[in-house]
Amino acid sequence: MNITVFCSANKLDDRYTAPAAAFARLLGEQGHTLVWGGSDAGLMGVIADEARAGGGRLVGINVEMLAHRGYPDADEMVMTRDLAERKAQLLGRADAIAVLVGGVGTLDEVGEVIELKKHGAHGKPIVFLDTDGFYAGLRLQLERMEQDGFLPRALDTLVRFAADPAEALDYLVGSSG
Hints:
This protein has 177 residues and is an alpha/beta fold.
């Protein structure tokens, strides 16, 4: 499977890095391809290293303005003109999507793929690895949106939240098709 991962490019504390690294290692060990933002920086670099160490293939989708941070050992590196093209490539190459800890860029990416899924533009499974309750606030907001009628579909048909790396990967593998 091609598993697109959205996450931070920042250097983070081990409480965030360790679960992300474990997820990426499992992804590689199970023979999947990591499709990610193509960066060697911070958490993006960590997951690329771990997926590679696990035997996985690496497909980076980078953007021209961040080319200087490209991961040097990717099996394939796609360079896009802008962030919109990057997001389209990340979704287009995905069989499934994992969301690890991240900032505004991560929220932008996953917000778009959830919106597209809501409208039936794709049916790819999306899972949040909710490390240390990082996405508890977002989950609460999405549940409120569902309860108050802002989502035309049940939330659990759009996204899932997983507590640990193995649970997240199992959901993606079991839900893709």
